[in-house]
Amino acid sequence: MRSGWTSYGERRFYSTYILSNSSMTLYIGMTNNLFRRVSEHKRGEGSVFTSRYHFDRLVYFEQTTDVRDAIAREKQLKGWKRKRKIDLIKTMNPKWIDLSAEWTE
Asked: What is the pTM of this model?
């Protein structure tokens, strides 16, 4: 199976994303289902770190059809200094609104 396609011929997307909370702590992750993963984070599921810091807003994301690109981008962003991450967020979301606020389960 080619990267970026499901077994039934639909295009698959992989997302690299940044979550934040009221104290502007940042969490960077990668997933093949952004809606599901953000919902899990908001419910405090997934890891001790995410449940401890109550990440409640999706402030940045980007998508690709190649899982290797998404993994590489996640690693790249995790290596950046905080200021550079904040500058990246501001390019898409200068007011730091929750980009997933309109999503429903």
From this structure: 0.88
Q: Which domain holds residue 52?
A: 14-92
SS3 state of residue 59: strand
Does 105 fall in a domain?
A: no
Q: Rounded CA gap, 104 and 69, in Å?
A: 28
Count Cα atoms within 13 angstroms, Cβ side, for 69.
10
The pLDDT tens digits of the residues spanning 94-103 come to 999 999 998 8
CATH number of the domain residue 26 falls in: 3.40.1440.10
pLDDT at 1 over 50: no
Does 97 map to a domain? no
Residues in the chain: 105
